[in-house]
Amino acid sequence: MLSSTISLKPNSNFSPRIHLFPPKFDIAQPKSRMASLPSFLGGLNLSRVAANMGVDASSAAASSDQSSEFCTLMEYVGKGGIDVGDDLVVLFGHLEYASKKIAALVASPFNSSLGKNVTIASTPSERDEPKPLDIVSNEIILSALRHSGKVSVMASEEDDLPVWINDDGPYVVVTDPLDGSRNIDASIPTGTIFGVYKRLVELDHLPVEEKAILNSLQSGTRLVAAGYVLYSSATILCASFGSGTHAFTLDHSTGDFILTHPNIKIPPRGQIYSVNDARYFDWPQGLRQYIDTIRQGKGKYPKKYSARYICSLVADFHRTLLYGGVAMNPRDHLRLVYEANPLSFIAEQARGKGSDGKSRILSLQPVKLHQRLPLFLGSPEDIDELESYGDVQQKVNPGYEV
Asked: At what angle do helices 285-295 and 380-387 cross, to 10 degrees?
């Protein structure tokens, strides 16, 4: 397993905050749009802000001091919220902690010097060559999961094999610790992707390496929870526990992730497609025909589509989740275990779809830890229309340098 020699401050970026008692509010109660006004904006003219937002000024003023109205991630998953169970609450508390450390790391003016302090071993052909931030992010997540006491296995895109953590942990975590790390130097959004499964207790009698691998190769239909963290102008943790998709935004003044996007529903159809158009002439005929058709507004949706492509999977998917459309990589590039399954689970919980161009992602049985495949995520009507063109998986792969 790859490791780093970076010294990380143990008390930085807020320790996990586990709420042992129910919160003092009803999560289902609608909140004022002005309730999220942070304290450091207290000098603003609330009447003017309220008028611009279409909110009554008196209610805005009253709500600006009601910080107790906020619903944090830990409160949402706890006994006063959807109550996912104590073990999963503890696990998410530590994932939350890890994501805050990674958010601070990717935003640090000193991360360019990490390469001097990280030893990178040779990389097998099945994995991309890691960046120093990949390795450090991997270590942050592994450390958090170890300290949670709730995880038996962690399988990471950055490791050749899963790491067996302990025999008693009820959960298995698969992760891409830092997706899009090649964009760090250009300050382009990056992200963390993770999925959570229950440990297969029927495999406990097997040798450690064998049971670690088999636990990590579970079908996406067995996911208990999945999420991603977007590191951008805001740090957003979007997660699903099998009952809808919800996004929480990090409040840097308190260290809490605040529920800002409850029950996300992807539009049935969007007007945006996200793909690297430079690969157009390597695409199969069906995919070229689909893109040409929607560009011209001649598809099932009679409006011309626009292209939006960041080349950061989490960022492109997050935009698609909110605005609709389709985000894709048509070649065998993205990993079924670490990326496609967790994101498809989130998409389906938001009433969207995840496909390899022919089949539902979650119906596929992984056979290798670093198994790659095409990935199409987005609005259900857009995915259905794309699949109707048949030949949309890119099999020509000349080996792109960028």
From this structure: 130
